[in-house]
Amino acid sequence: MAGRITNGLNLARASWEVIKLDKEMLLFPVLSGLACLVVLASFAVPLIGSDYLQTITEEEQAAQNPLLWVLLFCFYFANYFVIVFFNVGLVSCAMIRFDGGNPTVMDGLRAAFARLPQIMSWALLSATVGVILKAIESRSSKAGKIASGLLGMAWGISTYFVVPVLAVERVGPFEAIKRSLSILRKTWGEALVSNISISLIVFLAILVCCVPAVLGGLATASYNTPAYLIGGAAVTIVLIILVSLISSVLNVVIVAALYHYASTGNSPRGFDDGALQQAFYRD
Question: Environment class of residue 280 by beta-carbon count within 10 Å: exposed (0-12), middle (13-18) or buried (19+)?
């Protein structure tokens, strides 16, 4: 396990070098986040002041209202579509860089628009699964949540490589899942371990990001000046957002690199052959 974690960190380091060459990749999670906020507002604002708002807050009534399930499905579909659309654009940019090109944001957006049928199909399937998991969760307070959590975890693992498959192969959702499972078996868990490695780094980085807020709080307590706390908290929030953006792009680039190696047999530019070979080595 220690060797896998080290290899995961090596893959993260190589992905970071890719991001430094193409800093515009960081725009994709920003655009995705803004679009998700628009989706949320488009569903939330019409509900304000309506009778459905109170129904949503009451779990038993919400579970028995067909219209609310339809709204939930539409909300899931819109969110999944937005997230997958921009991730496909990001993966497309990574693939261009892996092949020696110099991608731009427009290159990624054009690639995503060219794959709209595949993205919409995947969003429909993901929304359906999301609603089913929510229905299972609502069946009972404890058993339903446990079952939904386990099924959701299995779904997330089995679809780990779906985005690069959609970006490159332009296949349907069920074929994308088959290809994702095939690549996941080849990597023998390395992709998931690299994700854990990045999560550990992100956790430590967030702790460091909290230092300005802590120092601001101490200064405020000492000098009775709220400005120190406000300033420190503002710096902390900005740093946490930046760390979150970088980590999300790192994860996508690693998945794209592993997919590139699995599908072509060649290491992406900037990635060490040994690290990728080890990722596909079965003990």
Answer: middle
141 DSSP assignment = S
Q: In the structure encoding, which two tokens stand for residue 158, read together?
A: 């089995």
Q: pLDDT (tens digit, 9 = 90+) per residue, 147-184?
A: 888 899 889 888 989 999 999 998 999 999 999 988 87
Provide the pLDDT for residue 36: 94
Average pLDDT estimate for 1-23:
77
Residue type for position 190: E
* Integer Rg of the chain from CA: 21
Q: How far apart are CA 198 and CA 212, in angstroms?
A: 23
Give 199's Cβ-side CA count (13 Å radius).
Answer: 6
Residue span of the structural domain in which 256 resides = 2-279
Confidence at 110, pLDDT banded by 50, 70, 90:
very high
The residue among 185, 199, 208 whose CA lies nearest residue 254 is: 199
Between CA 121 and CA 162 the distance in angstroms is 12
Report d(CA 151, CA 141) in Å as an integer: 16
Number of domains in the chain: 1
pLDDT bracket for residue 283 (50, 70, 90) = very low
Q: Which helix H or strand E contains 173, and what residues bound it?
A: helix 173-187
What string of DSSP letters covers 31-68? HHHHHHHHHHHHHHHHHTTSHHHHHHHSHHHHHT-HHH
